[in-house]
Write a structure and sequence with these properties.
The chain is an alpha+beta fold and about 270 residues long. It has two domains: about 80 residues, lambda repressor-like DNA-binding domains (434 Repressor (Amino-terminal Domain), Orthogonal Bundle); about 150 residues, Umud Fragment, subunit A (Ribbon), CATH 2.10.109.10. It contains six helices and twelve strands. An eight-stranded antiparallel sheet has the order 2-4-5-10-6-7-8-9, with no helix packed on it. A two-stranded antiparallel sheet has the order 1-3. It is elongated. The chain starts with 7 loop residues before the first helix and ends with a strand.
Length: about 270
């Protein structure tokens, strides 16, 4: 049974959409009857008086009537549902918030309305991908890509960085070519942690580039500390004159298999 007390704004938006399409409530009723007959289910049928009540904010459509409105108005099901506060784009974030006990395969989506996120699909000509950068400064084209595994990231509140193909500072914890999510509100260096996986990672702006590294402060100097297996050197910078922390790395997207990785010292190929 349809739930009462929907948002009055939702009904008004449906009415505006219908009027822009040049449809009357009787037109919707006639079209819904055809859908109900095709489906052999009267739940798809929507009387014009019932539609008027929905538009006046007295009822929320059932799942079947959402389908009918989607078909009649030529709008995605998820768009119409969002009018009533149901955001399917939050599903993947909620999946991440509510993990299941057992490891399992995710079912491939057949929903054409699957939520998308914007990811870089082309870099600016001449971009030096060997060096670490803020992503916004080297991306030429972004596109909507359905990547459910990234849906739980706070896309609007974060900065993103690209780890250069020659940046082995935290290898193998963070591989060259990775994308990192940066929280600019976390700029204070945390001095305590239990394991290397808990140790805060920071994205640092230098005079001539960027670093993604572990950090500590010592008498006015910022010390950039590499991973012990990276074969990189500890680096020191006057802080904040030569090095300024942009924020803490809170998410990583990286490949763990594929092209052969180069040894950071010898340059020879090593297995990923």
């Amino acid at each position: 049974m349809d739930a009462p007390n929907p948002s009055p704004t939702a009904g008004a938006r449906l009415k505006l959409l219908r009027e822009r399409l040049g449809l009357t409530t009787r037109d919707v009723e006639t079209r819904s009857r055809r859908i109900a007959q095709e489906r052999g289910n009267q739940e798809y049928y929507m009387a014009h008086a019932w539609l008027t009540d929905i538009e006046n904010g007295e009822f929320t459509p059932s799942i079947y009537k959402f389908y009918t409105l989607s078909a009649v108005y030529h709008r995605n099901f998820t768009e119409l549902a969002s009018y009533f506060g149901l955001r399917f784009s939050d599903l993947s974030r909620d999946w991440a918030m509510l993990p299941t006990p057992k490891t399992h395969l995710l079912a491939p989506s057949v929903n054409p309305d699957i939520p998308t996120v914007q990811l870089p699909v082309a870099f600016k000509p001449g971009s030096q991908l060997q060096s670490t950068h803020l992503l916004a400064r080297i991306v030429e084209q972004w596109d909507h890509v359905p990547v459910a595994m990234l849906q739980h990231l706070y896309l609007r509140k974060s900065v993103y960085g690209y780890i250069g193909s020659k940046d082995y500072m935290l290898y193998p914890l963070i591989r060259p070519g990775s994308l990192v999510q940066i929280d600019p509100s976390q700029r204070k260096i945390v001095a305590r942690w239990e394991t290397e996986f808990d140790r805060p990672i920071y994205f640092v702006e230098l005079r001539d580039g960027y670093l993604c590294t572990w950090c500590q402060l010592d008498h006015g100097q910022l010390i950039a500390i590499p991973h012990p297996l990276s074969k990189q050197n500890v680096r020191r910078f006057d802080h904040p004159a030569e090095a300024e922390i942009i924020g803490r790395v809170t998410g990583i997207a990286m490949s763990i298999a594929g092209e052969t990785t180069r040894d950071p010292v010898t340059g020879s190929g090593i297995q990923p």
